[in-house]
Backbone:
């Protein structure tokens, strides 16, 4: 446990732990990182350290420098609105680990949704806050220079979600490759890169975003599409109409915040990306873990394939999305 001893020593050096026993309590999740909760004299904190290889079935390496991108995103997003992200307390010298404040009493949105607690107003707040970060960073040379993470975004997002499927599906390949090319060249705003309900805490102050390891200066439509995809997948899993309503509320609130470009063009790109991400979650390298029923997979696959070939703007896509094919 030398690595953990390093963490404790570095927390002490940063003034974040006393001289007494320091217990690193692992938190759930942790596909891509070690994440611990640590009680300190000034309250609970979270320490996060990226793993060189992700804990998923398919082999998947990613540079640990993504820990640094995450810290940058958390700080930048708090600069837009301090309620959006936890406060970063220190960057630790070893392995791009960092410490942030622990948010007590804030469940992960995914757990709320899976337990049937679906709140469209919360989904709207998610859309509003993502749009706020995009609006604040749109067409900014400084932000563009601070997040030159194209290689990481390609390795963790474009390759596994778009190109992996393209390699296995000759009919869809040309369209998916075009989506991938477009996504890679668009430099419009600061993208979080992993806006999944499992990375959003439900706090008394609204949604708090975690896990910004894939942050990149790129196409803001990606964040909207990534989040909408999760809600649409869960609507098929549960059959619950409130999940498609939540997706509609997310998109509507996001739309209100778009002041940096023509909103119709953005929603069209978000519709394309959502179609591709939906298919990736049944055919790709990172399948949705709860979508194990073959009938659920078929419902998603059939709709996603049709939507990739005949794309719709995201608001229309959400309205037409079927939770079952009966
Ligand atoms: N600041 C925080 N306050 C409260 N809980 C937190 C905080 N940071 C992380 N957590 C908890 O730890 C979990 C894992 O954190 P995070 O998503 O950042 O790590 P990860 O290794 O990238 O996880 P995964 O790969 O599963 O998404 C979160 O889902 C959340 O439950
Ligand atoms: Mg996470």
Residues:
């Amino acid at each position: 446990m030398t690595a953990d001893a390093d963490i404790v020593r570095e927390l002490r050096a940063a003034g974040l732990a006393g001289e007494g026993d320091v217990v690193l309590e692992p938190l759930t999740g942790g596909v891509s990182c070690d994440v611990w909760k640590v009680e300190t004299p000034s309250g609970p904190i979270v320490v996060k350290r990226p793993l060189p290889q992700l804990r998923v079935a398919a082999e998947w390496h990613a540079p640990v420098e993504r820990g640094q991108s995450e810290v940058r995103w958390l700080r930048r997003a708090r600069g837009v609105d301090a309620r959006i992200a936890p406060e970063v307390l220190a960057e630790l010298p070893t392995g791009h680990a960092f410490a942030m404040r622990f948010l007590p009493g804030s469940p992960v949105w995914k757990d709320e949704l899976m337990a049937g607690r679906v709140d469209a107003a919360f989904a709207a707040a998610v859309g509003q806050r993502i749009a706020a970060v995009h609006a604040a960073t749109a067409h900014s040379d400084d932000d563009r220079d601070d997040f030159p993470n194209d290689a990481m975004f390609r390795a963790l997002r474009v390759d596994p979600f778009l190109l992996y499927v393209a390699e296995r599906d000759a009919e869809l390949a040309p369209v998916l490759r075009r989506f991938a090319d477009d996504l890679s060249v668009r430099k419009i705003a600061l993208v979080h890169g992993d806006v999944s309900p499992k990375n959003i805490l439900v706090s008394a102050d609204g949604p708090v975003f975690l896990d910004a390891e894939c942050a990149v200066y790129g196409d803001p439509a990606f964040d909207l599409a990534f989040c909408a995809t999760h809600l649409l997948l869960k609507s098929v899993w549960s059959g619950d109409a409130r999940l498609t309503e939540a997706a509609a509320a997310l998109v509507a609130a996001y739309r209100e915040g778009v002041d940096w470009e023509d909103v119709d063009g953005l929603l069209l790109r978000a519709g394309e990306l959502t179609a591709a991400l939906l298919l990736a979650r049944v055919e790709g390298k990172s399948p949705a873990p709860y979508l194990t029923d073959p009938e659920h997979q078929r419902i998603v696959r059939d709709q996603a394939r049709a939507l990739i070939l005949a794309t719709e703007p995201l608001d229309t896509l959400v309205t037409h999305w079927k939770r079952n094919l009966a």
Notes: The mean pLDDT is 93.
